[in-house]
Structure formats: C-alpha cells, structure tokens
Write a structure and sequence with these properties.
By secondary structure, the protein is an alpha/beta fold. It has three domains: 24-121, no CATH class; 139-178 and 187-336, Rossmann fold; 342-437, no CATH class. Helices cover 39% and strands 19% of the residues. The protein has 16 helices and 16 strands. It has helices spanning 42-58, 73-80, 84-90, 152-155, 162-177, 202-216, 231-237, 242-259, 286-304, 325-329, 342-358, 371-380, 385-398, 404-418, 426-437, 479-490; strands at 11-13, 19-21, 24-32, 62-64, 91-100, 108-110, 114-121, 140-144, 191-195, 223-230, 263-270, 311-317, 333-336, 448-453, 457-463, 468-473. Strand 11 (263-270), helix 9 (286-304) and strand 12 (311-317) form a beta-alpha-beta unit. The longest helix has 19 residues, at 286-304. The relative contact order is 0.08. The structure holds adenosine-5'-triphosphate and magnesium ion (MG). Keywords: ATP-binding, Nucleotide-binding. One of its GO terms (cellular component) is chromosome. This is AAA+ ATPase domain-containing protein.
Amino acid sequence: MTQSHANEMDFVLLPSKEVFVKPGKLFIEGRVRDDVRDDLDNEDIVEMKELLEKHFSSGDFTFELLEDILAHDRTADLRLGSHLEGVKEILKSLKVVEYLGPNAEHTTHSSTSARIEVQVYELYDDPRTFEEDSDIPQAEITPMPHARFDGVWDELVFAADIKGDLIWMMTNILRFSLRFSDNVGSDVNPLILLHGPPGTGKTSLCQGLAQKIAIRLRSQYDNTMLIQINTSTLLSKYYSESAKQVDEIFTKIARMCQEEPHTFTCVLIDEVESIASSREFSTDGGESHDSLRATNALLTGLDKTKNYPNLIFLCTSNMFDTLDDAFLDRCGLKREVTAPSLGSQYEILRRRLQKLIDRRVIRAEVELPPYKDAKTCALLDLASVGARLLNIAEQINSSPHISGRSLTQLPERAVLQYLREEECDLNMALKFIERLVRPAQTSQEGKPEGNKVEGKGTEIEIRGKKRSFKLVFEEDLDIELLENCIEAARKKPSLES
Ligand SMILES: Nc1ncnc2c1ncn2[C@@H]1O[C@H](COP(=O)(O)OP(=O)(O)OP(=O)(O)O)[C@@H](O)[C@H]1O
Ligand SMILES: [Mg+2]
C-alpha cells in the first residue's frame, strides 16, 4: 500500500520518447531531530518528504544500502547541494534502508533505475507505555515509531533473508488490505508467525518490523500503535479466565480499529502457544479446559478482525509443534527463525564489539572487518583482529547451541568479568572473549591465561582437567611472554603432569 500507483517521478522519458518505468524501489528514512520535533507540524514533515523525493528522483545519484547520507559532510553536500543546510536543520539522519526490485543482491543502487520513496518521521521517546490506565490493561501499548526500538531491526543478523521476506510480506499485506472492503475481505489473515528456539531474535524481529511499519506508513496513517500481549503474564495474572481475557482484548482491538481508522495497529502476541495450543491434546481438566476455550476465543477473535485494513498481527512461539492446526491455518506467513550460522555469529559479535567501541568502552585503532574479509584475514595473519574474531565465532559455533541472545551479551560480559584496569583496548577485549568461550573447550585445558591487576602486579591462571592454578607476581610483567614461557614449559614431557 506504499503508493499503489506510480507517480510522475517514477518514469523516465527516454530519448526515443519511450516511457520507462523504473523497476526498483529504494526506501530512504529521514529521522527528525529531537530538538525541533515539537516545533514541526505535519505539513513541514510532508514538505520535507516531497522535497527530498523530488530532488533525488530528478538527478543521477548513487546510494549505498544502510548509509546515512548526512553522516559525512562531503558526501552529504554532493547529494543535497543547496538543500543541505535546510535538511540538516530538520533531520538528524537520512538513511538508505531498503531496496525492493531486480538486482536485490547489490548493495549500491542508483536513482536512475529505482524509484525513491522517502519517509520522514519523528521518534516517540516517552518512557511510559499505557498499561493499567489504558483501554486494554492486559497489554502494553506503545506509540510508534519509538526510541526503545531504534536500531533493533538493523542489529539483527540472519543467514537466510528473513528480514527481506518479512518486508515483502508486510508490503504486500498492507498494499492489498486497502483493496479489500469490509464486505469482500481477503482470504488470508494479516498474521505473521515466527517460530524457533529461544533467544533467536523472534520478539526483536516483530518489534523491529512494527517500527518499520510505523515509519513506512507515516504518510498514510496519523498514528501507529504497538499492542504487546505477553500471554504468559496474561495467564498468570488472570488465572482460569484466559478465554474471557482473550475475547475482551480482541473486542477492544476491533473497536479501536473501527473507531480510529487513521491509526494503524500492530498486535504482538508473544509466546502465542499459551493461548493457541492444540485443542486435540486438551483433556477435561479445569485448566486445560480454560486453555481450550482460550484457543477458541483467539480463533474467533482473529476471524472477527480479519478485514480491518489498519491491523496486523505478529506472533512468536518456540513450541511450534504444540500449536493448534486451525491457528496455523490462519497464519498468512509462518517462518522459522533458526540459531545463527557461523557467518551470522561472527557478524553479531562484530556489531556488538563495534557498539562498545562507539560507546568508548573499548578503545580500538583498527576496523573490525566484515565476515567475508575476516576469512581472508585468517589466511594472511592469524593474529589479526579479523582472524581472532573468526576463531572465537568458530569456537562458539562448535559448541552445542548458543543463541543470538547469549552471543549478543558475550563481548560486554567478557569485559565486565575480566577487566582489571582503567582502560580496555581491543586486544584485551578479544582476549577476554577468548577466555570466556574457552572453558567449554577441553583442548584449551592447561593453557595459561594472564591478566594485569591494577596495583597488584600480574596474575596467571592455568586451568587443568581437575584443578586450576593461579600464579600471582608482585611486579607488572609482560603477560604474553610469561604465557608463552609457561605454555612452552607445559608442553615438555617432564612437566606434563
Ligand atoms: N540473529 C540475531 N542477530 C542479532 N541479535 C540477536 C539475534 N538473535 C537474538 N538476538 C538478540 O538476542 C536478544 C534476545 O532476542 P529475542 O528476545 O528477540 O529472542 P526470542 O527468539 O524472542 O527469544 P524467546 O524465544 O526466548 O522469547 C535480543 O537482544 C536480540 O537482539
Ligand atoms: Mg521472545
């Protein structure tokens, strides 16, 4: 439903007077500066959007996906020219976020072959969400796009193009929903189900998608709301009356969509298995009777709200096998989210480390290379940052199962656990992470691990199968040299025991 028909800027007049429709579409998001947000009205926002779309569409500009056009003065000047000052007065960033169309595997796209759609948006940053005092006390309601979810989408890394598929699905649902009236509804429920093991990013994907929807729909709807229903809380809080609660929530959502047609609503039902468990396995026990009724209420609720063009459901579950068939039949898209692959694990680590570098927790003089470059680094120099990070990712990858959740926490946890000095440089941070992922690897047993202790000299730890030792030296020693000496001595047969 993003512009259902092309506008005049979508066409290029060729010399032969043939009209050529640009095959791709490039999405650019302009975030309004927080300090001018309250001074702007809707007209200013629309004006800025139209100015940027017209400017970019009428020239020959090349854009790199994920770049922020305003980040560097020189490139910003090249792209925006005389508009730069005016744009900077209003916008904090201008990011090239998505490309839909042919050659989607390319990261560079030009305004001569892609239509440009700019969305200008303000971020809500009120930390409060409406709960107890709202119409739907069983849920958390957040006005979107919200600062809480800023960057969530960009931080998620997956091997398969799940983000691209979700964007397409969302674009299609939104586009077609407007073409159906209340009487002639779509056959498919606007419902996306993400399922997979814990900590693989399902909830974050839904929140990131809701943020995307809010930004994308900025010019079509006055507001977007995210209603988050945590079903396990719902069940524990309203014990034995979950069916009634589910029914009530859906009735209120339906009323909201009807009474406020200019508000778009994303409903996130986390851990949906609590209210969508298979009725086949329900027994006559009181509690399961309640869960059976809750599943019925959910199905009825989904049918009741199916044809509202301003509503979409996003559900997550890590118990796919227990879900009711009738619920699964109502999912417009079912997508499995799996544990991250080696490449994704590397990228997650790299981005988290980069975040710590950006926040000056870690000092770094070198760049952290992306995964494909790290593989080359590993061939050329095993001590390089890329090779070491790749080695860490490989160690994690060979351990039984590590979720995206534990991976994202790893760099920070390592620094918190092992840092004993005022400052932490990249070399130290990598050492700490290596140390944290090492205990699971038996091949590392006996390898000495050194650490400088502020004001106390140097510590060396040697982990064995049964026992670990710690040598404490009063002076500050060269840790690497000491580790190498101990390692060499350990490998001598007479010292092995
Ligand atoms: N593939 C990934 N890329 C980057 N970060 C990830 C990834 N998977 C998980 N994370 C991070 O892990 C944390 C937990 O993710 P999230 O809560 O979305 O997982 P989940 O699949 O909903 O887990 P659960 O099934 O336990 O509810 C988040 O901070 C998220 O950013
Ligand atoms: Mg979750």
